[in-house]
Design brief:
about 325 residues, two-stranded antiparallel sheet, binds fe (ii) ion
Length: about 325
């Protein structure tokens, strides 16, 4: 999920005349919707931007497992627990596809994880918020996976072959995630007064961070124009955010829940919802590492890496033994 959120850098679009012949041929392929494959020539900045985008996405998948993992042992029924486990495993799988896609661009998995563990690489800020009640698991599926789908469906058509193909499978699984989340929230919303209050409280806490998932407003989103020309971003942050609001508000209304935004109103003329100002200070504070759970999340990933060292060593030793057996001369 969560790929195009924290782009940084300057935007300078080259016109056709300024491009080299190679760059022009590359852009023409993209314009003709021909996929770029790992062995094809590509501008260095395309490669770098994609490594950053895909790895941020991969990191978000595996960090996103943590807030939900917190509730596996406290799921209210065996069925809910089985569904939650399957969902979290899917997210781990998404991480693996995406790390593999990034590796085709010439960077190693160790290097990518090193960037996450050192704090150099970003992941989606939403996972720095805590999961306080079972209703939060519903809100994450409904809103966070819902926002992820909004972002990822267009990426199925992005210009880089391995990324676009990974997105096709990921999106199928994300729609299951969203439905399981909505089902949790619906059950609570139709339950006792206390359960209903839990659902409302979860919506109150997750609504605004979900809108922030689409990244800064278009005016402040540097890098956008180049990414759009390369078709690794197909809609702007504000366009996707608007779609998400238009899709989600009627779902909240159906549940009888209140979206925590006094400025929310339907604009009949423009056929869209108007909504209130997002607190971008909060977004940038969390991005800088000052969210409620930033330290805890990163530490959990570093611990998982350290505690898994024996598995990596055993796998290496096994591979060496196998190689020595098959090619005794080379050993
Ligand atoms: Fe995912
Ligand atoms: Fe998901």
């Amino acid at each position: 999920m969560y790929a195009q959120m924290v782009n940084a850098g300057a935007d300078k679009l080259k016109s056709g005349v300024e491009m080299t012949a190679q760059e022009r041929a590359f852009q023409e392929k993209i314009d003709a919707d021909i996929k770029i494959e790992p062995k094809d020539w590509m501008p260095e900045s395309y490669r770098k931007t994609l490594i950053r985008q895909i790895s941020q996405h991969a990191h978000s998948e595996i960090v996103g497992m943590l807030p939900e993992g917190n509730w596996v042992t406290r799921a209210p029924t065996l069925e809910r627990k089985a569904i939650l486990l399957a969902k979290i495993q899917d997210e781990g799988g998404h991480g693996l596809y995406l790390y593999s896609a990034a590796e085709t661009l010439g960077i190693s998995r160790d290097e990518l994880l090193g960037q996450l563990h050192s704090g150099k690489a970003k992941y989606s800020s939403i996972f720095n918020y805590p999961t306080q009640t079972w209703a939060d698991i519903g809100a994450i599926g409904w809103l966070v996976d819902g926002a992820a789908i909004m972002n990822q469906v267009p990426l199925q058509r992005c210009s880089f072959g391995p990324y676009s193909r990974a997105m096709i499978r990921v999106c199928k699984e994300e729609s299951f995630h969203q439905r399981q989340g909505y089902d949790i929230i619906r059950t609570l919303a139709e339950g006792t007064a206390e359960q209903r209050a839990m659902a409302q409280d979860a919506l109150n806490r997750w609504w605004w961070p979900s809108l922030m998932m689409f990244g800064p407003p278009d005016g402040q989103s540097v890098h956008s124009a180049q990414s759009m020309q390369w078709k690794i971003k197909l809609f702007t942050n504000d366009e996707l955010r608007q779609r998400f609001v238009d899709q989600t508000v009627p779902q909240a209304e159906y549940l009888g829940l209140t979206v925590p935004d006094p400025d929310l109103r339907w604009n009949e003329q423009e056929q869209r919802h108007e909504f209130g100002e997002i607190d971008w200070n909060e977004f940038f504070e969390v991005l800088k590492g000052h969210g409620p759970c930033n330290k805890e999340r990163l530490q959990a990933r570093v611990d998982a890496w350290d505690n898994g060292a024996w598995v990596r060593e055993a796998a290496m030793a096994h591979a060496e033994k196998q190689a020595a057996r098959t090619h005794p001369d080379a050993a």
